[in-house]
Amino acid sequence: MILTGKEIHREVESGNIVIDPFNQKNINPNSYNFRLSNQLKVYTAPTLDTKMKNEVASIDIDETGFILEPRTLYLASTIEIMGSEFYIPTYAARSSVARLGMFINLSACLGDIGFIGNWTIQLYSINRVKIYAGMNIGQIMFWCPKGRINLYNGKYQGAVGAIESRIQFDTRK
Amino acid sequence: MILTGSEIIRNQNSGTIIIEPFDERFVEPNSYGFHLKNELKIYQNEIIHVDQYNESETIIIEEDGFLLEPGRFYLGSTVETIGSYNHTCLLYSRFSTSLCGIFIQTSAPVGHVGAIIPWTLEIVVAHPVIVYPGMLIGKISFWENKGVVELYNGKYKESKSVTTSLLFLET
User: Fold this and answer.
1) B130-153 pLDDT, tens digit each
2) By the 8 A CB rule, do B138 and B4 touch?
């Protein structure tokens, strides 16, 4: 089962869902619209290696906006701290954003129950698109879990701002 | 409802969910992390036909890794055979994988109830990236069904590894 907007609102007020800052205007029928922060990161190496730390450079989105180049990966962050210890989050682009030719995640829409922090989004555009800090870029949804809950305690817990991949720390077989 | 990690373990133990090989270290709060098999396939012809078998080339990912390039399309496979007799599966890229610019499927995330196979992954990358055999690449979630369950009996049910599209069998 997926929570309706009214239920998301109720659970934010009861503390079972964290969305901070929270604005009632951003509630949808069954999701909440989150906003784009003003900092992007891009990988600087021509080739990424999933066994290594990959260096990034930061880009600030100023008042005049920033043009995303096509087929280029940018890491960005939500303004909001979001998560829940009671519901499983998924996130997606807003339909209006997707219609401009933008992805905000690369088939990785499922979050973990218990993760609470800024969400790093993976901006990838098919077209040249000018974006602005503070725009409503994506939506988060909350689903009911079945079974005993073990909260997320992984390497991105409490994330602040856009975070480059920590894949080099993954357990290997 | 989505199964929590402990519920995935419970169902794996009872035989309702199959994850083979299974290792509790890869149980996540609400999913199971799967690994990339050492085999990729790339379609060989410039034009891909929806109504014909498409030839593909097989690539083995060696221990020192394989460079995936943007603008190309790779089929990969999970190491694990995964499925459920009573749940619907959804496959995702892991957060760490996606942050490296790797899509592991392209808008076809649903695994049918009763399909118990190594899953073919549709891999596209946003940035050149080196991948390794056996790396954690994606995660699978299990969802409760509503309604009478009819187990999957489709054309991929005998999949053993990377399987190219069998769409032509429908025409």
Assistant:
1) 999 999 999 999 999 999 999 999
2) no
Report all structural domains of chain A as residue ranges with CATH numbers, in order of start.
5-46+54-156 (2.70.40.10)
The 3-state secondary structure of B70-106, one letter per residue: CCCCEEEEEEEEEEECCEEEEEEECHHHHCCCEECCC
Q: Which residues of A touch B134 (CB under 8 A)?
A: 172-173
How far apart CA B106 and CA B125 sit, in angstroms, is 11
CATH topology of domain B5-170: Deoxyuridine 5'-Triphosphate Nucleotidohydrolase; Chain A (2.70.40)
CA dihedral (A45, A46, A47, A52) in degrees, to 10, reads -10
pLDDT tens-digit readout, B63-90 = 999 999 999 999 999 999 999 999 999 9
- How far is B120 from B118, CA to CA, in rounded Å? 7
Give contacts of B65 with chain A, Cβ < 8 Å: 49-51
